[in-house]
């Protein structure tokens, strides 16, 4: 179903990822691949297993079976090794280092791309200063990119909500990832902020980082993504272009449910509505003369 | 807790401002004069307060308090030549100083009456001092001082029972001390040499104050000193002088650090006997170990309740290789080798204990380290040749550790240097100071680097830290091992200072610091994640029990009460770290949404871990 006809090695290949918690299979044999320069959406109703799937991809969960590969290299299920390989992520509930400054948060994101150890820090040789300077410069570039430069010295906890989301993205980008996983990046945002996030994700893609995004805002997803995968009850229902997914009846059914067998037809609905209208009119006429019905039990009578 | 509270600038006692200033100034001036009168008739109360015309003992503290109150009152009055004292331009410093002078004076008078049996033992001079300090305080309260608005006070309900509780609460509700700092007036530009002179003067005053505190000869004087210093420190903070000095020390960082250590190194030269130098060297050992613990607790956020064991490993290693007659090893290492061996042994123990336990988080880690701390002590007690192999002499420990000789310089004998005699403990004090400098250097350099940031990130949110590519287990082990090494290094000196190593020194909680509970308390009291915090906390926690003999029986009780009060009133410690200070700068911004996530949300748990 993949519409991208790229010959590049995919940045992400998940094959048969299954995550079982006791008797509950949260994710069942999901295959997904993401190619460079691609924005892929992952949608599904609440509880479909999207975030669990993300946690399997990033090593926070050890999948029961299946494997995850980055550029054809199988990843061990250790979060720091996944980050080192080149997959960065943000969290559904913002998880910043609240008592560090904005700049320090981004510097921590750069941790895996630098090597200076304890002895370098204690001896403070020229190499150490060079590395610190380079890290700071990279972090400042990212703050510029996300528009957080004026807030560089603020504590992360004191940023407004939308900027905290941006900072999480900046921190993830500081690891120079080939693939960025965004878990509901626009949750709780107003339309302006959502549009700004959309521009930001495009800019990230244009810089050469593929993006896999979970989101409930369908307009956001369908504006943004090249391809959308739908996860329902832990299984991948379908995957394809935004148009194909939007038109897919199974997707609509998963979100809205299907009409049941004995569903009322149009005539019956009209009949019921007419009857209700007549009743309301009659009630309005009687309202002036009629006393309030005594049969209505007041709450205290129920005691 | 840290959000700025709404403040207003109104006097507690409504009086015209000029009247208030005259009353305060007059009160302070008369306080100064009253210290030259006799306060009591007998020399039975220590410090000789009987001589008219010559203040002694606690009267000197009142005198200093009075002088400071007068100076700050005149400064707030814009007296030419004194305005530099209050860069914030507020009157709170005056109020704090007047309150401190009153507290010290009244404490003195009450102590006299209590010790000698009744108010009859006070001479008129004492009553005059009481009245003048009260006048100065009432005058200060009639100044427009920054305080919280009545509406912003928390409603406490009916918890305040008892006359004292009601009275204290009433005073608090009337005065409503504010917490929001005022902005500083712009500083007048000074030439660099003048700034450096100011820094030198500040450290000189600090050295004098600390030396005075350590040298106090009786408990009453120490209590009075502590009261006055606390209020004066609060006043200097409110006046903005501390902030101004901090700008200067940041500007001349290296000079300031050098000045600080020069002041510390000057201490033994002010002493002629060993009595107080011993206290000072013990404070340094305690403070250095607390600073090492601050790497583990303050930076990496690992609650280690058995930290004193690493000090013990260092001390025992040094004792074993010291050539002591009681040592089971028949070797005598030079000190540098003994120090390295001690640090290395601690490092090994740190890794051995850390590797299995650091997979735990939070409370579980605390419990396991507490256990390991006790295991160390019990093991040492059992390695006596009967219950186990003969290594440590069991509960008897290793006595007769010989004095150090470094480059032909014997630490056990007095030396004449620059006209003063350096006693044996003074020698050890200077050696320990070198180790303290080393630990401060390690702490600040490690903390302000890629590694330090990773530690803080782990402390803040371990899951997010690992997702950012931090190998949290390795870095936690590194913090644990570094902390252990620093404690082991301090332990090697401690063994020589005390000249014995016995298991009772290394318990979880005991009468003599350092022990694990007091080490942790020093870090929390002083301020986690800072350098000066644990140093100050350790000094206070060592000096207070050492000076106030009557507290000995109630020490742990008082200590517990103090911690509860601290957690209620100032959870960030006496010296909050930079990050917590930053919270004051950004006002009116949103807080992080509730960080207690429901279970099962993103990455809260790790399957199979």
Automatic annotation (TrEMBL), chain A:
Q: What InterPro entries is this protein classified in?
A: AAA+_ATPase, ABC_AA/LPS_Transport, ABC_transporter-like_ATP-bd, BCA_ABC_TP_C, P-loop_NTPase
Alphabetized UniProt keyword annotations: ATP-binding, Nucleotide-binding, Transport
PROSITE patterns reported in the protein's UniProt record: ABC_TRANSPORTER_2
Ranges where the record places region Disordered: 275-303
- UniProt-recorded name of the protein: Branched-chain amino acid ABC transporter ATP-binding protein
User: Can you give the residue ranges of the ABC transporter domain?
Assistant: 12-258
Give me the stretches of Low complexity compositional bias: 277-291
* Molecular function GO labels: ATP binding
Q: Which Pfam families match?
A: ABC_tran (PF00005), BCA_ABC_TP_C (PF12399)
């Amino acid at each position: 179903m993949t519409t991208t006809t790229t010959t590049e090695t995919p940045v992400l290949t998940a094959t048969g990822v299954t995550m079982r918690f006791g008797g509950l299979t949260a994710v069942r044999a999901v295959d997904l691949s993401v190619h460079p320069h691609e924005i892929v959406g992952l949608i599904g109703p609440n509880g479909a297993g999207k975030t669990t799937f993300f946690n399997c991809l990033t090593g926070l969960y050890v999948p029961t079976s299946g494997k995850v590969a980055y550029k054809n290299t199988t990843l061990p299920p250790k979060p720091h090794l996944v980050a080192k390989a080149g997959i960065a992520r943000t969290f559904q509930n913002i998880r910043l280092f609240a008592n560090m400054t904005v700049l320090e948060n981004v510097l921590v994101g750069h941790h895996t791309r630098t090597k200076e150890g304890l002895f370098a820090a204690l001896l403070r040789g020229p190499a150490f200063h060079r590395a610190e300077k380079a890290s700071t410069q990279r972090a400042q570039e990212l703050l510029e990119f996300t528009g957080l430069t004026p807030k560089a010295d603020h504590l992360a906890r004191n940023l407004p909500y939308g900027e905290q989301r941006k900072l999480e993205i900046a921190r993830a980008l500081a690891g120079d990832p080939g693939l960025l996983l965004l878990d509901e990046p626009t949750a709780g945002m107003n339309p302006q902020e959502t549009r700004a996030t959309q521009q930001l994700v495009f800019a990230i893609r244009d810089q050469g980082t593929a993006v896999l995004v979970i989101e409930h805002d369908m307009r956001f997803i369908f504006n943004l993504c090249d391809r959308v995968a739908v996860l329902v009850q832990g299984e991948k229902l379908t995957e394809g272009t935004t148009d194909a997914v939007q038109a897919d009846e199974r997707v609509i059914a998963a979100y809205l449910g299907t009409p049941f067998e004995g569903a009322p037809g149009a005539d019956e609905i009209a009949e019921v509505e007419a009857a209700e209208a007549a009743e309301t009119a009659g009630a309005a006429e009687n309202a002036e003369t009629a006393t309030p019905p005594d049969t209505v039990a007041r709450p205290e009578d129920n005691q | 807790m840290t959000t700025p509270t709404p403040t207003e600038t109104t006097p507690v006692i409504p009086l015209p401002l000029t009247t208030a200033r005259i009353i305060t100034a007059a009160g302070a001036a008369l306080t100064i004069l009253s210290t030259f009168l006799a306060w009591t008739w007998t020399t039975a109360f220590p410090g000789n307060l009987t001589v008219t015309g010559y203040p002694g003992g606690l009267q000197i503290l009142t005198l200093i308090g009075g002088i400071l109150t007068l100076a700050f009152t005149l400064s707030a009055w814009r007296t030419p030549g004194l305005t530099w004292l209050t860069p914030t331009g507020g009157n709170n410093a005056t109020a704090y100083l007047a309150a401190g002078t009153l507290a010290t004076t009244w404490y003195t008078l009450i102590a006299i009456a209590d010790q000698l049996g009744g108010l009859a033992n006070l001479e008129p001079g004492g009553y005059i001092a009481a009245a003048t300090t009260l006048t100065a305080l009432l005058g200060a309260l009639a100044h427009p001082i920054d305080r919280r608005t009545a509406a912003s006070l928390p409603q406490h309900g009916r918890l305040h029972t008892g006359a004292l509780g009601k009275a204290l609460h009433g005073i608090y509700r009337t005065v409503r001390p504010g917490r929001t700092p005022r902005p500083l007036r712009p500083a007048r530009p000074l030439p660099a040499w003048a700034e450096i002179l100011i820094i030198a003067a500040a450290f000189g005053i600090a050295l004098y104050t600390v030396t005075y505190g350590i040298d106090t000869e009786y408990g009453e004087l120490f209590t009075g000193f502590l009261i006055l210093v606390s209020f004066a420190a609060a006043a200097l903070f409110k006046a903005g002088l501390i902030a101004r000095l901090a700008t200067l020390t940041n500007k001349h960082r290296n000079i300031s650090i050098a000045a600080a250590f020069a002041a510390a190194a000057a201490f033994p030269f002010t002493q002629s006997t060993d009595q107080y130098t011993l206290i000072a060297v013990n404070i340094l050992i305690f403070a250095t170990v607390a600073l090492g613990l601050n790497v583990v607790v303050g930076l990496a956020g690992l609650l280690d309740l058995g930290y004193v064991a690493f000090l013990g490993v260092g001390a025992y290693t040094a004792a074993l290789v010291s050539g002591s007659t009681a040592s089971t090893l028949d070797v005598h290492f030079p000190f540098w080798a003994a120090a390295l061996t001690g640090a290395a042994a601690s490092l090994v123990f740190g890794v051995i204990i850390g590797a299995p336990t650091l997979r735990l988080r939070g409370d579980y880690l605390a419990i396991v380290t507490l256990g390991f701390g006790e295991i160390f002590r019990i093991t040492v007690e059992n390695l006596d040749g009967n219950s186990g192999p003969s290594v440590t002499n069991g509960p008897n420990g290793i006595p007769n550790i010989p004095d150090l000789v470094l480059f032909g310089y014997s630490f056990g004998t007095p030396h004449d240097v620059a006209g003063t005699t350096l006693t044996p403990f003074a020698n050890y004090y200077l050696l320990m100071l070198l180790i303290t400098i080393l630990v401060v250097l390690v702490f600040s350099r490690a903390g302000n680097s890629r590694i330090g940031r990773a530690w803080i990130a782990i402390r803040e949110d371990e899951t997010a830290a690992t997702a950012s590519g931090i190998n949290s287990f390795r870095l936690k082990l590194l913090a644990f091992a570094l902390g252990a090494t620093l404690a082991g290094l301090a332990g090697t000196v401690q063994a020589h200072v005390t000249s014995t190593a016995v298991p009772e020194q290394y318990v979880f909680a005991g009468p003599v610091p350092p022990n694990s509970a007091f080490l942790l308390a020093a870090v929390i009291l002083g301020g986690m994640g800072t350098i000066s915090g644990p140093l100050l906390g350790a000094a206070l926690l060592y000096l207070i029990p050492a000076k106030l003999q009557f507290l000995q029986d109630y020490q742990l009780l008082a200590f517990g009460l103090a911690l509860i009060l601290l957690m209620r009133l100032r959870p960030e410690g006496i010296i909050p770290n930079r990050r917590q200070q930053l919270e004051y700068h950004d006002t009116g911004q949103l807080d992080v949404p509730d960080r207690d996530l429901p279970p099962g949300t993103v990455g809260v748990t790790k399957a199979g871990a």
